[in-house]
Design brief:
Layout: H1 8-13, E1 27-34, E2 38-46, E3 51-60, E4 67-71, E5 77-82, H2 91-104, E6 111-118, E7 129-130, H3 133-140, H4 150-163, E8 168-173, H5 183-186, H6 192-196, H7 206-219, H8 221-224, E9 227-233, E10 237-243, E11 246-250, H9 271-280, H10 285-294, H11 297-302, H12 308-313, H13 317-341, E12 346-350, H14 351-356, H15 358-367, H16 377-381, E13 395-398, H17 403-418
Helix pairs in contact: 2-4, 7-17, 13-15
Length: about 425
């Protein structure tokens, strides 16, 4: 990483359209999840029928001191690098060395496509699409609906377009999985003129939920057809109620601020409280937005950290209050979604907190004991896949999510759809 930089002229030939149609050739797909301070990536070998992970990693500390790390599928470190503290590098400047590093590790393979996580697809985009200028222009219009994520998702797309203009790019949307929720679950109690303009509940974390229901179908196919609540609990957190693998309702709504309390986001909030804060404390719209997205949630309540690991290790009573509220909101929303489903057959924990914080899972299950949920303590602390007892009225699972694998699968499908079909005999 530290010795290689991308050559724009030479790089454009890499991943040229010559390779797109040959699905028998072992090529490579790249997935990118670009945020405000990080770029997460995964590289997959792409064959005729499957994708195999080659490497995954991230560039963290964008805007401060960028740090690169790449790991093999078994977790061993392949490479790491840290830029100088004075390096003011945007997404394009950082993607250039990343693409060069990836190219150097492909061997005889060619990078043929890049799949991107794009948080908001609005009403128009409800399945993965090939990105062109028209698509990009429509996605720009959705930036006000996801100001924390969308600009950085699109910045990565633009950077790849500049660095590798002939490379196929595919946008995969977090909102797409929820697109067909019942209208009563998407409607907001506002004047119809606003609803007609697209003010509705969209839902997020859809790429993760799509992957998780696929995994549950493998583990427990009968349960996957029933009434399931998925809990994607990370720095961003939401729940999704599913029936027969389809989204029925979810806790996030018009934006990714809604629903559960999160790392730095408030979750559900009385709109009157926001009006009061703006009027009493003279908060401008940008100041209010910053407070709701960056200063609230676990960080705001605890005054200590947005990291659940730090809070669980702390003896400060404020940390305990933040954890208590986090769990309370989850239990409360599970109750509401269970009502929407008409019962519950399975509960699935996932994402950073859901997969690794056994005390949080235990507390949530205890909060649902009235419903017959019973957690098997030793299995929970060993992070086993099934953590409910045989007596539990609801089966409780811990399933690791893999949004990168889902994005790679969608990107491969778009490639197949775009490939010339053989002529009929």
């Amino acid at each position: 990483m530290r010795h290689r930089r991308a050559d724009r002229a030479g790089g454009e030939a890499t991943g040229s359209s010559d390779h797109r149609g040959d699905l028998t050739m072992p090529n490579a797909l790249l997935t990118i999840n670009a945020g405000s301070s990080s770029i997460k990536f995964a590289l997959f070998e792409h064959g005729a029928t499957a994708q195999r992970l080659i490497a995954r990693g991230s560039i963290e500390g964008i805007g401060e001191v960028p740090r690169f790390i790449a790991r093999a599928p078994d977790g061993t470190t392949l490479d790491r690098y840290q830029w100088k503290p004075s390096a003011a590098m945007d997404h394009e400047a950082l993607l250039e060395p990343l693409l060069a590093w990836l190219t150097s590790h492909l061997g005889e393979k060619a990078l043929v496509a890049v799949g991107h996580r794009v948080v908001h697809g609005g009403r128009v985009f409800h399945r993965p699409v090939r990105v062109d200028q028209a698509v990009l222009a429509e996605l720009e219009k959705l930036v006000p609906l996801a100001p924390l994520h969308q600009p950085h998702n699109l910045a990565a797309i633009k950077a790849v377009s500049s660095l590798r203009p002939h490379l196929l790019q595919v946008a995969c949307f977090d909102t797409a999985f929820h697109h067909d929720m019942p209208s009563v679950a998407t409607r907001m109690a506002l004047p119809r003129v606003y609803t007609a303009s697209g003010v509705r509940r969209y839902g997020f974390h859809g790429i993760s939920y799509e992957y998780l229901i696929g995994q549950l179908r493998k583990l427990a196919p009968t349960l996957a057809k029933g009434r399931v609540i998925m809990a994607h609990l990370g720095n961003g957190a939401s729940l999704c109620a599913m029936r027969d693998g389809r989204s029925i309702d979810t806790t996030m709504g018009f934006t990714a601020l809604d629903g559960l309390m999160m790392g730095t986001r408030c979750g559900q909030l009385d709109p009157g409280a926001l009006l009061y804060l703006q009027q009493t404390y003279r908060l401008s719209a940008p100041a209010a937005e910053h407070m709701l997205y960056h200063e609230s949630g676990l960080l705001g309540v605890s005054g200590i950290s947005n990291d659940m690991r730090t809070l669980l290790a702390s003896d400060d009573p404020r940390a305990g209050e933040a954890i208590e509220l986090f769990v309370y909101r989850i239990v409360k929303e599970i109750g509401a979604l269970t009502s929407a489903l008409g019962g519950l057959d399975a509960l699935v924990f996932s994402a950073g907190i859901g997969e690794h914080a056994a005390p949080i899972r235990q507390a949530v299950c205890e909060g649902l004991a009235w419903f017959g949920v019973e957690c098997k303590v030793d299995a929970n602390h060993r992070h086993e896949t099934l953590i409910s007892t045989s007596r539990s009225a609801v089966r409780v699972f811990v399933i690791a999510t893999d949004e990168e694998a889902m994005i790679a699968a969608h990107t491969a499908r778009v490639m197949r759809d775009l490939s010339p079909q053989p002529a009929a005999a």
